[in-house]
Design a protein that fits this description.
Elements (H helix, E strand, L loop, with lengths): L1 E7 L6 H12 L4 E7 L2 E6 L4 H7 L3 E12 L2 H10 L11 E8 L9 H15 L4 E2 L6 E8 L2 E10 L3 H5 L15 H10 L7 E4 L6 H8 L3 E6 L2 H13 L6 E4 L12 E6 L14 H12 L3 E12 L4 H7 L3 E11 L2 E9 L2
Parallel strand pairs: 5-6, 5-7, 9-10, 9-12, 10-11, 12-13
Antiparallel strand pairs: 1-3, 1-4, 2-3, 4-8, 7-8, 13-15, 14-15
Helix pairs in contact: 1-6, 3-4, 6-7
Length: 347
């Protein structure tokens, strides 16, 4: 077991932390959460867990092995660097650099560039026969200033959000204004905790955002939509990203065309708003009928992750229908819309 830290996206206060935990659980890693700071999660776990987080995560940014954490006070920081055991982390003739990230203006009295330089000098003197390389270092020591604290460690992985931009709604073969952004779609798939090879269903598949992300993670995907042109559009997007499917069909989510409990998890975004088709029902009625139907085709213990307007209180609907409400996250869009990302478990 090792002390690990994860610098996560700041676009939502709760989703990134939950995504990391969900990946750990889906991949079967035992872990203990030590602390949640602003945009930083500290845990104790096998360092091998960094590999699946790098592969799966949409909202983690930096993953590393923690060397120490302390108050964001220069004397305390330098004393900890001097005491730190670094020889096991960087070898003879390897190059290194020190980088410091400030989260939301934390500790403004500390100059980040000067801190990088001073820590680098200590490391250079402390570890024999290492080189500083500011452009292409073999090792990066990474410090984070957050909540008047300083977290310092060795960067193991960096997740850049660029790939999700390339899969943005307007970059796809088929576009619809209600399409789910790739990054949020990936996060929601992770919250449902599928394993590689699991069957993931989206009964309101739309442009196929969830199916693309689940497929790229190694899952088998099924998609339905009541509109033929949406199913055809989803197929075009799946083909664009090289994702094969187990089945795509024109179908009403209230009457899912599956005869047995064969779905491992469900990830979906039921329609609402002016550009969506709700079959003449209110969004609340549509969600309720969908959840009633989905219980028969999802496996016991399977998760359902869905997005809905906060106003319909989807967690209450699910609990009333017998699902276990695990968590909710809220995304504010504008005065008239806050979305609730909810996760249920079928007991």
């Amino acid at each position: 077991m090792a002390l690990l830290f994860f610098l996560v996206s700041g676009e939502n206060p709760t989703l990134p932390f939950s995504e990391v935990r969900s990946i750990l659980e889906a991949e079967g890693f035992t872990y203990q959460v030590l602390e949640e700071l602003t945009q930083v999660l500290r845990i104790e776990a096998d360092s091998e867990c960094i590999k699946p987080i790098k592969f799966r995560s949409a909202m983690a940014r930096i993953c590393g092995i923690e060397i120490f954490n302390c108050e964001a006070e220069l004397g305390d920081i330098f004393e900890n660097v001097k005491r730190a055991e670094l020889n096991s982390l960087i070898g003879k003739d390897e190059s290194f650099v020190v980088r410091v990230k400030r989260v939301r203006r934390s500790s403004p009295e500390i100059d980040g560039l000067i801190l990088e330089k001073k820590i680098g000098e200590v490391v250079f003197k402390k570890v024999r026969k290492v080189r500083v390389d500011l452009e292409a270092p073999q090792k990066t020591f990474f410090g984070i200033l957050t909540d008047s604290r300083f977290i310092f460690g060795l960067k193991i992985a960096e997740i850049k959000p660029g790939e999700f931009i390339t899969r943005g709604p307007r970059r796809r073969a088929f576009f619809h204004p209600a399409a789910m952004p790739a990054k949020l779609a990936r996060c929601m798939v992770n919250l449902a905790q599928p394993k590689r090879g699991d069957i993931v269903l989206d009964p309101f598949c739309g442009t196929g955002s969830f199916l693309v992300e689940a497929g790229l993670m190694g899952c088998h995907v099924l998609g339905f939509d009541v509109k033929r042109y949406m199913v055809e559009g989803s197929l075009r997007n799946l083909m664009l990203y090289g994702v094969e499917h187990e089945g795509m069909a024109v179908a009403d989510a209230r009457f899912v065309p599956l005869s047995e409990a064969r779905v491992d998890c469900v990830v979906t975004d039921p329609p609402y708003g002016t550009s969506a088709t709700t079959l003449g029902l209110t969004t609340r009625d549509l969600v309720e009928k969908f959840l009633s139907a989905i219980s028969d085709v999802s496996k016991k213990g399977g998760r359902i992750c869905l997005a809905a307007p906060k106003t319909i209180k989807v967690y209450e609907i699910g609990e009333r229908l017998g699902f276990k409400h695990l968590e909710s996250h809220f995304i504010y869009y504008h005065r008239r819309l806050t979305r609730e990302i909810v996760v249920f478990k079928r007991d």
